[in-house]
Amino acid sequence: MESFSDRIIKFLSDPAIISAYGAALIGSFAWLYVVTKLPLTIAFPVYIGVTFAMVLLGGWFFLGETLSSTKIIAILLIFGGIILGVSSDA
């Protein structure tokens, strides 16, 4: 029977966990950089829209989830809204 500390060490040394923490750290730095360069009214909707699209595509690519026409239309509508919102601020 594994002790609690052995399970924690095994968990924290898992390459998937380490890469997830690394990606989150890089994403945090990228977000801080973007917020210093763009107004929040532009940066945040783009961030949320891209995040939604990446989760949908990641689920399809890595987990084999279905990518229906409804989901593709939803992504296109989100990107269309982002484009309209950004172009109206320019």
Descriptive report:
- This protein has two domains: 1-37; 39-90.
- The protein is 86% helix and 0% strand.
- It has helices at 4-12, 15-37, 40-63, 69-89.
- Helix 3 runs antiparallel to helix 4 (69-89).
- It is mainly alpha-helical.
Helix content: over 70%
Going by helix content, strand content and strand pairing, the class is: mainly alpha
Any idea what the shape is? flat
H/I helix tally: 4
Quote the average pLDDT.
Answer: 89
Total strands: the figure is: 0
Low-confidence stretches: none
Total count of domains: 2
In percent, how much strand structure appears in the residues?
under 5%
Q: Cα distance, first to last residue?
A: 62 Å
Calculate Rg over CA atoms: 18 Å
Order of helices and strands: HHHH
Report the biggest beta sheet as strand number plus sense, adding barrel if it closes: none
